[in-house]
Design brief:
heterodimer, A: alpha/beta, 32 helices, B: alpha/beta, four-stranded mixed beta sheet, 33% helix, globular
Chain lengths: 799, 389
């Protein structure tokens, strides 16, 4: 079979939240999907003749998945790739499928029944997997044919399948090695997932370790008599975990699910040295008894009320774990937490908690020490190498670090000592590491990351990284160039990569200078080209608002003019240089970030890129060439005989409504991406490597584009309908007076100003118009209020 | 010399973009209606018609090439001229009044007048939205979209969502009953529509006889309308359910001079007593009838109480209600067979279509005076008063 096989068609059996979500994600990556579920059992005689009635369960489930927020599909039109059916009528269609995924209810008897049916209808050689999170994989293939067993394994997605990046692959002893290799490769390259090889042990890797960590925090909360709001603040972003913390995450997942997993682990892991941590605490029982299952039943640890506070936000109550009553939630006031929040660096914050001594710090410390012990004792039980545990936890639970990475921050030896002091067990392989003089689990050299291998008792390179470019691994090398906000890396094959290092990768003077100097350096130094990309959560949140806000507030228009001009000249430099410049993006690609992307020669955009010119939200318009670029792109879409106005209106709407594409695919719709020029990559970890390849491809025949002086703008002919559209938005209460003022400025730039009629202009002329409009908005008090509000509250003000 | 309406016919009204006429051009509909009309007066040589006056609100694209002329040659013959008239939603009535005025002033004896519109084929704002810059810049309300004007009227005259929805449910119920009672059968020209489309990748040709108005939904309820979201204003009341439907159709009348009536010994249906137009603030376009009605009444020497039946074009339920609420019309007389919310509003055709419906209802009820009135985009109103003979 080999690893290069492509899945053309897949069957998903079971259309619950996970089944429908998996079906949607397969549709996202271009697979034709057959989604099947049971037929409703109470059909009338008439219903029985109707395909619609027979498919009611699956159709409703799929519709719910398509409508869910955040969206399950990259683009709503991808739903056409999914066909639905029921187990009675359509099971034979699985014979056409290359991959059959079972996602039915978590009961072994039902799953076995389904698999017997699969065995009867499937084509020999097709792949069969189960998405079970708790049932041992080998039990499910008992009694099946040889061919079935050889092609069967577990593929465990996390909810929601589009967004959570972990895919666990769990072979049985019968699974062909080719099948395992195939899923490891396919999961990474095509499903875009961090794909982790697991053993057939209870809850595999992600949930075994992740749920242990959660259960331990539950215990320690009671021990240190902390409130849930405090624990959520302590176990959130401050220690590199999602902002839901622990209890709010429980509300999100649903306590019925959490309760089941904890109980399951307690039953199945009786020999775990810390099995006592798998206890359902009394307050969780309270929630379960009262069916307060979390967000899905409207209340759990937290309860949203219809009351509003003085700021107009809904009042949220929090469960008091001692009295089991809901009380108004408090703002945590823990000294160690407050101090940590002042620190930028995660490693520093973790060390700080280990040095502090209040109850909050103790909870973090003890939970991590228990986690170190628990996770290290699971090697080789659940994985041969510890780095797979870190991979799984980062991808499946969205932690910035896994247990062994936290441990490296504390120091191997210190961790061992603290485990001993806590009365927990240190596994022999870790003791051996210490005695052999190793000081960390991971190390980096020559742009590669290595892990300690207990078998060879030496560091080994982490497999699979040869085809990746991981910027973190270059940190030990001297950069090619550096500014206050960028680092320029040599990523090999004659290609440079400019990484932003400013907070949230916002674009300030240091970034602009970094881009200009890198391009110059690449041109002068005989480099093949430049990638602009980073591996942070977000490519860039946009221009440095603090700087613009300050200058606007001081009404320093000379400085502002210079700053905006520098921005424009920098994006233009990305386009007009002697070398190809390619952007690689993921996460937010907002405002200035989007402007840089649009001015590069090409881009490699992770599917999970959220792209948009969002400046209108803060009272501005795109001033780094973005509005000009939309005018240029509109012009490029005009053709002889075209009435042009609808194209202009589309471009106007994208900017005036600050539209954000919720996936790379939507970026093509909104016009920030162009088919044939920009490329989507499914696994964001590969974006920079693909961008490097793109640079090499473009470098072969690279010629600098000719400066544009032929941009058709419509002048008053275009302004009139756009002004009318703005007036309609105002009258229809879709926009405030200030929104209209901004919208009209955007229209003005898009039309090249109030020219008498259609004519051709240069890019520089449009940049000048754009800059002037930007500056005039900076002079508006309401714009200044918007900027200030955004800086203080991190969300837009509608004024 | 007095002018008389001799015959009046219309097509059934199709639902725009999904109905039977979605691929059937409005010039073709018009030719069929006029030929059917002429077949009812075999004594009349088509070549003697002085002019064909065609109302059309968006005379471009498929309705371009001066559609009036395109229709006149094909329906009647090369020697018969044709002209296109545009007063938006009043076009169909305007064309009749022009025919009447020409005869009264001695500028002809025989006219075919009415209107034709395909909203399936021509976008409501035309193909190129290119307003005057100075207007857009300084007085954009001169060019406000129709939905927004209806919201402005609703707000100013205190029309609630529930009132508008209730009015709309009634419109559907009255229209459904009128169709069920066969009231429109005689006035509708059945048209054979051959549609060639691709179904399951096969070229399929099928022919239907289009003879019933398609927009009516007898099952419309207050609850089903209440579920719809406002379209034009986030805080507004106008929904797809309480606005007129976009439609396709054509309607024409034969107008003849007294001399011709005598010559052919015709029994005229009615005469147009008066027809007036008036201007209002474009933002409150829906109130146009209130500017036109008093003028038409005055010119006819009549008062509102003399008018037995009214066809008020329901551009929007809210607008129709405001016109009634302002006392411009007597509610009992208005739209006894439903209106545009249910039956559709093929812009340039509407005035002639409502004339056809009104004259037939006057006949059925044996009433004397009737009125057709409509609001007009850009801030105008029209009112035409007929006397049944």
């Amino acid at each position: 079979m080999g690893m290069t096989k492509r899945i053309r068609k897949a069957a998903v059996l079971g259309s619950g939240v996970m089944g429908s979500g998996i079906a949607c994600h397969l549709a996202n990556i271009g697979v034709e999907v057959l989604l099947l579920d049971i037929m409703p059992n109470n059909l009338t005689e008439d219903d029985k003749k109707s395909v619609k009635a027979r498919n009611k369960i699956v159709d409703q489930a799929l519709l719910a998945a398509i409508k869910s927020k955040p969206a399950s599909l990259y683009d709503s039109s991808f739903a056409k790739r999914i066909k639905t059916g029921n187990f009675e009528d359509d099971f034979s269609k699985i014979a056409d499928c290359d991959w059959i995924i079972e996602v039915v209810v978590e009961r072994l008897d039902i799953k076995k029944e389904i698999f017997a049916k699969v065995d009867a209808f499937r084509r020999a050689g097709s792949l069969i997997t189960s998405n079970t999170s708790g049932i041992p994989i080998h039990l499910m293939s008992e009694g099946r044919s040889e061919d079935f067993k050889k092609h069967f394994c577990g593929t465990h997605f996390f909810n929601p399948p589009r967004y959570l990046r972990l895919l666990e692959v769990i072979p049985t002893t019968d699974t062909l090695p080719d099948v395992v290799d195939f899923f490891l490769h396919y999961g990474d390259h095509y499903l875009g997932k961090t794909t982790v090889l697991c053993k057939d042990t209870p809850a595999f890797i992600g949930n075994r370790i992740g749920v242990f960590a959660m259960a331990k925090v539950f215990q320690l909360t009671s021990k240190y008599n902390l409130r849930i709001e405090e624990v959520d603040a302590l176990t959130g972003p401050v220690i590199g975990r999602p902002k839901t913390g622990t209890f709010r995450l429980g509300d999100l997942v649903g306590h019925d699910t959490s309760g089941n997993v904890i109980r399951g682990l307690k039953a199945n892991c009786a020999h775990d040295e810390q099995v006592s941590s798998f206890e359902v605490p009394p307050y969780l029982d309270f929630l379960l008894e009262n069916k307060f299952l979390g967000n899905k039943s409207g209340q759990g640890f937290y309860k949203k009320t219809s009351e509003k506070d003085e700021k107009g936000k809904p009042v949220i109550l929090a469960l008091n774990l001692n009295t089991l009553t809901y009380e108004p939630s408090i703002k945590p006031d823990i000294p160690s937490l407050k101090a940590a929040k002042q620190m930028d660096d995660l490693a520093r914050r973790i060390r700080h908690f280990f040095d502090a001594s209040d109850n909050g710090a103790s909870l973090i410390k003890e939970s991590l020490i228990s986690l170190f012990s628990y996770a290290s004792n699971r090697i080789p039980e659940i994985a041969d190498s510890f780095f797979r545990i870190d991979d799984a936890i980062r991808a499946g639970f969205a932690w910035e670090m896994g247990p062994f990475e936290y441990w490296d921050i504390i120091g191997l030896e210190k961790g061992v000592k603290l485990i001993g002091e806590a009365g927990e067990k240190v596994p022999s392989w870790v003791s051996e590491m210490v005695s052999l003089g190793f000081t960390s689990f991971y190390t980096k050299k020559e742009g590669k990351r290595f892990y300690y291998d207990p078998v060879s008792k030496a560091y080994q390179p982490i497999p699979g990284q040869d085809s990746l470019i991981i910027l973190d691994n270059f940190r030990s090398q001297a950069p090619v160039h550096k500014t206050s906000e960028t680092i320029l890396h040599d990523i090999g094959e004659g290609v440079l990569c400019l990484e932003f290092t400013s907070p949230h990768n916002s674009i300030g003077e240091g970034v602009l200078r970094g881009i200009q100097e890198s391009i110059q350096l690449a041109e002068d130094g005989g480099w093949k080209g430049l990638v602009i990309g980073n591996q942070a959560t977000n490519f860039s949140v946009g221009a440095n608002l603090m700087m613009i806000g300050m200058l606007a507030y001081q009404q320093d228009f000379d400085q502002l003019n210079m700053a905006v001009d520098a921005f424009q000249q920098t994006t233009m430099r990305c386009r007009y240089s002697a070398i190809p410049v390619v952007a690689a993006t993921q996460g937010y690609v907002f405002g200035g970030g989007c402007e840089i992307l649009m001015h590069c020669d090409a881009s490699v955009v992770s599917a999970e890129s959220y792209i948009g010119l969002v400046e209108a939200g803060i009272g501005l318009l795109p001033g780094g060439g973005g509005t000009k670029e939309y005018a240029l792109r509109a012009s490029d879409l005009f053709f002889e005989g075209d009435v042009q106005i609808p194209t202009l209106i589309e471009k106007f709407k994208a900017i005036a409504l600050a539209s954000v594409a919720t996936s790379a695919h939507e970026g093509f719709k909104y016009g920030s991406l162009i088919k044939g020029r920009d490329e989507v990559v499914l696994n964001k970890d590969r974006a920079i490597a693909y961008a490097q390849q793109k640079v090499l491809q473009l470098a072969r025949n690279y010629t600098q584009p000719i400066k544009r002086e032929d941009i058709t703008v419509l002048g008053r002919t275009g302004l009139a309908p756009l002004y009318l559209a703005a007036n309609e938005l105002k009258l229809g209460h879709f926009a405030s007076e200030h929104d209209i003022k901004i919208a009209k400025k955007i229209a003005y730039v898009l039309c090249g100003g109030d020219l008498s009629g259609t004519q051709q202009v240069s890019e520089q002329y449009l940049l000048d118009v754009e800059r002037e409009a930007f500056l005039s908005l900076c002079g508006e008090q309401k714009t200044q209020e918007r900027i200030q509000y955004m800086l203080q509250n991190n969300k837009p003000l509608r004024n | 010399m007095e002018a008389y309406i001799i015959k009046a016919y219309r097509s059934a009204v199709g639902k725009a973009k999904k109905g039977s006429f979605k691929n059937f051009r409005s010039d073709d509909i018009a030719v069929k209606v006029i030929q059917h009309l002429m077949a009812q007066v075999p004594e009349l040589d088509p070549n003697t018609i002085d002019d064909v006056i065609v109302g059309c609100a968006n005379p471009e694209g498929e309705q371009g090439f001066q559609i009036g002329r395109q229709i006149s040659m094909r329906a009647l013959g090369i020697p018969v001229p044709g002209v296109t008239v545009n007063r938006y939603c009043a076009s169909g009535l305007e064309s009749i009044s022009m025919a009447v005025a020409k005869i009264r002033s001695g500028m002809g004896h025989l006219f075919i007048a009415g209107g034709a519109e395909s909203m399936s084929q021509i976008p409501m704002t035309g193909y190129k939205l290119a307003p005057n810059y100075d207007v857009a810049n300084s007085t954009p309300n001169y060019l406000t979209g129709m939905g927004i004007t209806a919201e402005a009227v609703a707000k100013k005259y205190g029309i609630s969502r529930e009132e508008a929805d209730t009015f709309s449910v009634n419109s559907h119920q009255k229209a459904a009953k009128a169709i069920q009672d066969g009231k429109f059968i005689d006035e509708i020209v059945p048209i054979e529509v051959t549609d060639i489309s691709v179904h399951q990748n096969k070229r399929v040709e099928y022919t239907t006889l289009m003879k019933v108005d398609e927009g009516v939904r007898p099952d419309t309820t207050l609850a089903s309308l209440a579920a719809l979201k406002p379209v034009f204003d986030t805080k507004g009341i106008i929904t797809a359910g309480n606005a007129s439907q976009t439609s396709d159709g054509a309607a024409f009348v034969l107008v003849a001079s007294e001399e011709m009536v005598k010559l052919f010994n015709w029994q005229p249906i009615a005469r147009m007593v008066s027809c007036s137009v008036g201007g209002v603030d474009p933002l409150y376009m829906g109130m146009g009838p209130c500017a036109a009605i008093p003028k038409a009444l005055k010119s006819a020497g009549l008062s509102l109480s003399d008018i037995d039946l009214v066809e008020l074009n329901e551009a929007f339920a809210a607008q129709a209600l405001a016109v009634i609420k302002e006392g411009c019309l007597n509610p009992e007389t208005v739209n006894v067979n439903g209106g545009a919310v249910a039956l559709g509003h093929p812009l340039g055709c509407t005035g002639a279509k409502l004339t056809t419906q009104l004259l037939n209802e006057l006949g059925r009820q044996n009433k004397k005076y009737g009125m057709v009135t409509a609001c007009v985009g850009g801030g105008q109103g029209i009112a035409g008063i007929y006397e049944k003979l």
